Amino acid sequence: MTKWLEENTPKLVLAPSFVIVLIFVYGFIAWTAWVSLTRSRLLPRYEIDGFIQYSRLFESPRWDTAFSNLFVFGFLFIVIAMILGLTLSILLDQNIRTEGAIRTIYLYPMALSMIVTGTAWKWILNPGLGLEATVRGWGFENFTFDWLVNPDMAIYTIVVAAIWQSSGFVMALFLAGLRSVDQEIIKAAQVDGIPTWRVYTAIIIPSMAPIFLSAFIVLSHLAIKSFDLVIALTGGGPGYATDLPATYMYAMAFSRGDIGQAASSAMVMMMVVFTIVVPYLYSELRSKND
Amino acid sequence: MKVQVLGAVSGLAVIAATAVSAEPQAEVLHYWTSGGEAKSVAVLQEEFAANGGTWTDMPVAGGGGDAAGTALRARVLAGNAPTAAQIKGPAIQEWYEEGVLADISAVAEANNWADVLPASIAGHMQCEGTWCAAPVNVHRVDWIWANAEVLAANGLEMPTSWDEFNAAAETLMAAGIIPLAHGGQAWQDATVFEAVALGILGAEGYKKAFVELDTDTLTSDEMIAVFDQMRTMRGFVDSNFSGRDWNLATAMVMNGEAAFQIMGDWAKGEFMAAGQVPGEDFLCASTPGDGFLYNVDSFAMFEVDGEEKQQGQALLAKLVVGQNFQEVFNLNKGSIPARTDVSLDAFDSCAILSAEDMAASNEGGSLLPSYAHGMALRGAQSGAITDVVTAHFNSDMSSEDAVKQLAAAIANSL
Q1: CATH of the domain spanning B143-183+243-290
Q2: What is the Cα–Cα distance from A287 to A275, expressed in whole angstroms?
């Protein structure tokens, strides 16, 4: 009996969460995939009707905007947040006296919810209230900064707010990585008289590859599921210029009674996530097997 | 012995329980949660209680009814529909097609709904010939509001054609006043668009385009003219309009920063709440062109089990369309009664104008559903139109392209 328990306790303990995940994650993914193949409107229906929802999706100019916004936003957000985070962490790593205080200040935006970030930046970027009005108030009458109300530039305001929110977190990740690099190697390099920037580019940064990967995964899933920031900052506007797939899906499912469309857009979003996560999982699993 | 006593007692308890629950019950799902609206619903609750009913309130705030819609869907899918839910326009028929709405024809016929409601509004309350919903109020959407002082100071009157409106706007621009207070949210863009469309296409053309989705009308030169006028109006709003809420736009008219606003009669509530008097401080008129675009709130009745609930449903339907409730509720809400035989003595001049126009347009066949507020089309189609309208208004898209996109978007949404 004890032996049986010993062998099976882990399985027993894990079973409930396994079942829950199986139903509520994979079960509902399967359900969504099914519904995306039907002509569901207000309530889900279950008669399969081919890929009609997907062809509707890719014919919709609004989805086009939302989907390409995802790539613009995702690319800029991930790249800039990583560069900024890395720079900040390297600067903080120079044994400065007030490191603790500065680290907290940079990390603090992460403690705010996206809704707060979005609302604050909405006021800062509003041409009549924020930056533009302030600078004009100083006497620079021609100063214009109307990204928030300009349909071609509005998506970049979301990038700015998202970077402000997340780069401190990336900094903390990198800082932990920097600290974990073997000090012996660095000291040896310094003894050899190698300049500091070479130490960073040739030793420290390459040895932080796993941190880059984690930061990339965390940031890219933040980018793909971005929703609240858009709702708070622009509401998807002007027009639908700052729609992202998540806001598109919300509009279809909850405002328009078009569940089939919502399901198909959700499936496309999931496929985007898969194309990022699957290579990561693959490389992780392979390195374990080696 | 003891067992027998217990049996007798529990038997009594069962009898008592049935006696208590024989009174009408209604569980009502709605999204009237803001100040004036909540007060309006309380009127109905009191009346329901006064008639011996038990009211279970289920208010769901948020998202202009989106959250309530989600809650309703969950309840219906779980097989536990509320007695009545606040649903409007073609969504009523959409729910009917899901096979979950009840037939309240008995109440409607006993209370002569067909005679006291305007025909086109009565049409929204019927599902394949039976009555399935009860109307609460009529909001007029195609209003233009103005600051009386600003107009007088610039020697202007309320415009009666869109050309007059454009001319007045030019004058106001020259005087340094924002001609049109507007908030750049998709539904507000759509509200202005449908008013312009009604003016330029006329009642017949509006009906063809936004009720029947007639492709020829949607791609006609008149429709291009509608988008041209929208482009012109884009020049009359301030540069800071994106994302502004409608009540902030109303405030701009109130304090003289802007002259006009095109918005439904809920804007009147903002003026009145600020202590302004219609006809003196602010002016109301229908937007240029003939016709009347309505937005009717209603309660759809769901199929429920149990006599108490069915009685509650019947009582609710009767009270909602009753004269007393229609008067008191609409005085609170700023709209007008859906029935045409309610005394308007207590209403303000804008509401009286609205009621007169409703009666006149009902006879002239120009009493039309508002597309922007989900009265004319189902969600997918009206959403597709709004996408094009808001994309055009907020970019430099040409009117010809907009019309092409409009036709494509509607085809894609069907």
Answers
A1: 3.40.190.10
A2: 19
Q: In total, how many domains does chain A have?
A: 1
Among A151, A241, A255, beta carbon nearest to B66: A255
- Whether A42 sits inside 8 A of B393 (CB atoms) is no
**CATH architecture of the domain with residue range B24-139+295-353:** 3-Layer(aba) Sandwich (3.40)
Q: Is A126 inside any structural domain?
A: yes
Residues of chain B with CATH 3.40.190.10: 24-139+295-353, 143-183+243-290, 184-236+378-414
Please answer whether residues B41 and B32 qualify as being in contact, where contact means their C-beta atoms are separated by less than 8 angstroms: yes
Instruction: Please state, as a whole number, how many other Cβ atoms lie within 10 Å of the Cβ of residue A253.
Output: 21
Q: Do B394 and A151 touch (CB under 8 A)?
A: yes
User: What pLDDT is recorded for position A256?
Assistant: 85
Position A218 confidence tier, pLDDT thresholds 50, 70, 90: confident
Considering only CB atoms, which chain B residues are within 8 Å of A255? 63, 66, 379, 383
Q: A151 contacts in B (CB within 8 Å)?
A: 394-395
**Domain range spanning residue A269?**
62-289
Among chain B residues, CA nearest to A55: B412
Taking residues B340-357, report their average pLDDT.
Answer: 90
- Looking up residue A168, the CATH number of its domain turns out to be 1.10.3720.10
Q: What are the CB-based long-range contacts (under 8 Å, 24+) for A63-66? A: A63/A245, A63/A248, A63/A265, A65/A240, A65/A241, A65/A243, A66/A240, A66/A243, A66/A244, A66/A245, A66/A247, A66/A248, A66/A265
Query: Residue A95: is its pLDDT beyond 90?
Result: no
Q: Do A127 and B240 touch (CB under 8 A)?
A: yes
Tokens of B39: 């007060």
pLDDT digits (tens, 9 = 90+) for A22-68: 999 999 999 999 999 998 888 888 888 889 999 999 999 999 999 99
Cβ-defined contact of B95 to A261 (cutoff 8 Å): no
Q: Which two tokens stand for residue A43?
A: 């309530």
The topology under which CATH files domain B184-236+378-414 is: D-Maltodextrin-Binding Protein; domain 2 (3.40.190)
Give the pLDDT of residue B20. Answer: 47
